[in-house]
């Protein structure tokens, strides 16, 4: 069984491959697929975007596909950056610019209101028209100085509840265990396991 | 009667002076007050911030004071920039940077979801401990290219409902008549008129 992850992110591929429910499934990424078009992520929710990406992947490849959409929801910003997390600064995927902007916006917000959560939606779609979408969350709080070299995105600014380390200071397996994406992907894996046989 | 507007913005002073209910009241701004400290705007709502500023002004000057806090609430951004409007790019008061960032963030959002509203809270406080705070709103939609030379802030990107012009293309009196700040200031003026005699 082959499953396409609709992403070019090597870390996401590695994370998916570490999930037990996917052992025995050959997981490939978009870099393994020829001539894949870039579609705009114009959904209004994480779930919309994950499903849109999974459907696109099925349409262009004919393979069963998993896609995710994730981001950070800051309470003081009414849940923003949210689905705009990766392009918050206007520069898509520029983690340093996105982190710097978020910190600047929150400069005058008191410590006690720096609560946030990472949110991930994980979606599955296949050529038979089956679709599943689930959500995972990791609550925590923001700090004002980045810490840690691991992870990506806003990980260096985020301390998960119950931890003293930032998400960027956690080992990958520690992070998977509590992360929004880990939770969403495991829940998805369980639900779609019957389709992968 | 003297009334302090807790602002250094000449356009806001002029706007307040154009309000009929304030005719006969001498309105001064922070630039007319010596050694006024800059306080952080760390409230969680427009109303909080307007009241905080009005109270500060009373405390430092002993004068009756009016203050406002306003911004643009974009539906696709869950009401952000909101209270962060003036420092959205991290550069306080840099309209060009703030406008450019907002447009970049909304690049992939479909036209139909570019609805927004300007929101203003106007607050009054005086040495006798009286306080009033009111809210005004101007609904409309965003466009993708700035238009117009008037106004300030996000005005060049915003087309009020019922208009084809941006807020930056309206004459000051036209804008006052429909604007969030005009509505809030007129409502405030009516409520505080008895205190100004």
TrEMBL record, chains A, B:
Cofactor comment: Binds 1 Mg(2+) ion per subunit.
Binding-site residues for Mg(2+), renumbered to this chain: 69
Catalytic activity, as annotated: XTP + H2O = XMP + diphosphate + H(+); ITP + H2O = IMP + diphosphate + H(+); dITP + H2O = dIMP + diphosphate + H(+)
InterPro entries: dITP/XTP_pyrophosphatase, ITPase-like_fam, RdgB/HAM1
Endoplasmic reticulum among keywords: no
GO MF annotations, alphabetized: dITP diphosphatase activity; ITP diphosphatase activity; metal ion binding; nucleotide binding; ribonucleoside triphosphate phosphatase activity; XTP diphosphatase activity
NCBIfam families: RdgB/HAM1 family non-canonical purine NTP pyrophosphatase
Chain's role: Pyrophosphatase that catalyzes the hydrolysis of nucleoside triphosphates to their monophosphate derivatives, with a high preference for the non-canonical purine nucleotides XTP (xanthosine triphosphate), dITP (deoxyinosine triphosphate) and ITP. Seems to function as a house-cleaning enzyme that removes non-canonical purine nucleotides from the nucleotide pool, thus preventing their incorporation into DNA/RNA and avoiding chromosomal lesions.
Name the UniProt record assigns to this protein: dITP/XTP pyrophosphatase
């Amino acid at each position: 069984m082959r499953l396409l992850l609709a992403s070019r992110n090597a870390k996401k591929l590695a994370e998916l491959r570490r999930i037990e429910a996917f052992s025995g499934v050959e997981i490939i990424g978009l870099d393994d697929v020829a001539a894949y078009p870039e579609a705009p992520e114009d959904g209004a929710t994480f779930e919309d975007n994950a499903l849109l990406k999974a459907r696109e992947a099925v349409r262009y490849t004919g393979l069963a596909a998993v896609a995710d959409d994730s981001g950070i929801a800051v309470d003081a910003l009414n849940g923003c950056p949210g689905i705009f997390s990766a392009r918050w600064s206007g520069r898509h995927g520029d983690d340093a610019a996105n982190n710097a902007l978020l910190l600047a916006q929150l400069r005058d917000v008191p410590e006690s209101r720096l609560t946030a959560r990472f949110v991930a939606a994980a979606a599955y779609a296949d050529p038979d028209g089956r679709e599943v979408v689930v959500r995972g969350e990791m609550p925590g709080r923001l700090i004002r100085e980045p810490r840690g070299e691991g992870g990506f995105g806003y990980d260096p600014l985020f301390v998960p509840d119950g931890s003293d380390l930032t998400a960027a200071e956690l080992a990958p397996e520690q992070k998977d265990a509590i992360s929004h994406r880990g939770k969403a992907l495991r829940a998805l894996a369980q639900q779609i396991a019957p389709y992968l046989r």
